Amino acid sequence: MPFVRIDAWEADGCRLDALGRAVHDALVETIGIPADDRFQVLTGHDGSRSTLRYDDYLGVHRDSGIVYVAITMRAGRTPAQKQALYWRIAELAEEYAGTEPRNVFVTVTENESIDWSLGNGAAQYA
């Protein structure tokens, strides 16, 4: 049950939707989440009320095509699964939204089953 937040510079609804599909499809393909397990917050930033900052850290040149993807999910995936996930997100972001892979910044935060309530005030995974 990943929770995904995607922030993109000057992204309209179509681009945000494409990025959301790219991340979701990558999660389904690489770590086997169910196809109907989609919980995402998609935000476009325009520089007037909100903005994004970035540099060329570790020699990766980023530009205004920057996309931040933050995924929170339960612990248990192997390093190989995570690496496959990052690669596939970058591939699909380029295919679906025209985002260059160098501009796809992904972070994964893991937690435990008790850290989730999927509604009704219940801890469904506990």
Q: How would you characterize this protein structure?
A:
The protein has helices spanning 13-31, 79-97, and strands at residues 3-9, 40-45, 67-74, 104-111. The protein has 126 residues and is an alpha/beta fold.
In short:
This protein has two helices and four strands, in the order βαββαβ. The protein has helices at residues 13-31, 79-97; strands spanning 3-9, 40-45, 67-74, 104-111.
Sequence of secondary-structure elements: EHEEHE
Largest sheet: 4 strands, mixed
Tally of contiguous helical segments: 2
Strand content: 15-25%
Structural class: alpha/beta
Helix % is 25-40%
Number of strands: 4
Biggest sheet, strands in spatial order?
2-1-3-4
State the end-to-end distance: 13 Å
Average pLDDT, to the nearest integer?
94
| Shape verdict | globular
User: Rg from C-alpha positions?
Assistant: 15 Å
Poorly predicted runs: none
Topology, element by element:
Layout: E1 3-9, H1 13-31, E2 40-45, E3 67-74, H2 79-97, E4 104-111
Parallel strand pairs: 1-2, 3-4
Antiparallel strand pairs: 1-3
Helix pairs in contact: 1-2
Features:
126 residues; four-stranded mixed β-sheet; 4 strands
